[in-house]
Write a structure and sequence with these properties.
With 220 residues, the protein is α+β, with helices and mostly antiparallel strands. The protein has 5 helices and 10 strands; from the N terminus they run αβααβββββααββββ. It binds coenzyme A. The site of coenzyme A has 22 residues, from helix 3, strand 4 and helix 5.
Length: 220
């Protein structure tokens, strides 16, 4: 886990790290960090060229995500630790690694695994509050199954799960998707894209809404 300069970890980092660890399938490791204004200092030279054009808050959030990603890659004993940005904003992980990054206004999270553990993975973090009505109508479609969840919070969970499922499907087929292109069954823990990418989805609602989507390794 990332720590403050005084060595203390904010409580929310501990809570989010615990929640992420509980969601992760075997072989997937995760980290989180409260975003600091100076987090853009964490970019490696191979990353900064692809990220420099963004505004300062976005650079801090991306820098916080990169800092976590570097820690995870070190733990996976990966020599190459740069995670550059692709043309559509997609993170380009080192060969043999599947990973994902997300941030909300306050925190960044990242997950990573060796490619034998998962085929691809997506993560999202959202504030634990209902989606505004207009946005909920955009995110929820008749094909989604939300079980017994309160419709307000179910909208935010679906939003997070669909973003995670998109991040997991994009490295496999390169399709840019809208919310209407992903059908989610929260009780079954499954998401399927309109191009047929099926992922397992897990989520938790604590201090934050966290969502994880992952596909099986090729051949499984
Ligand atoms: C991927 C996307 C949904 C992320 O949304 P967001 O709310 O802006 O940001 P999040 O904090 O959740 O995630 C940002 C991270 O997603 C990752 N990401 C961006 N595009 C990605 C893609 N195509 N595939 C996988 N991961 C991607 C990046 O690592 C990014 O962080 P970074 O810029 O610091 O590297 C958005 O960038 C996007 O591409 N939207 C277009 C399609 C869309 O919105 N569809 C509806 C949802 S399914």
């Amino acid at each position: 886990m990332s720590t403050r300069p005084d060595g203390a970890s904010p409580e929310i980092e501990k809570a989010v790290e615990r929640a992420l660890a509980a969601l992760a399938p075997p072989g997937l490791i995760a980290g989180c960090r409260v975003i600091r204004a100076d987090d853009e200092r964490h970019f490696l030279p191979a990353e900064s060229a692809s990220i420099l054009t963004r505004e300062s808050r976005a650079r801090s959030a991306s820098g916080a995500g990169r800092q976590i990603a570097h820690e995870l890659l070190q733990r996976l004993q990966c020599a190459d630790m740069a995670v550059a940005r692709g043309l559509l904003g997609n993170p380009i992980w080192p060969e043999g690694i599947a990973g994902s990054i997300a941030h909300d206004e306050e925190m960044a999270v990242a997950v990573a695994a060796r490619s034998g553990a998962v085929g691809s993975v997506g993560v999202d973090i959202e504030p634990a509050s209902p989606l505004p009505d207009g946005l909920r109508d955009l995110v929820m479609t008749p094909r989604d199954r939300v079980g017994g969840f309160d419709p307000g919070i179910a909208g935010r969970i679906l939003f997070a799960v669909k973003e995670a499922a998109y991040k997991a499907s994009f490295p496999l087929d390169g399709h840019v998707l809208g919310f209407e292109d992903i059908a989610v069954d929260l009780e079954a823990g499954e998401a399927v894209t309109s191009h047929g990418v099926k992922s397992s989805v897990r989520f938790s609602v604590t201090a934050k809404i966290l969502a994880l989507a992952y596909t099986l390794p090729a051949g499984d």
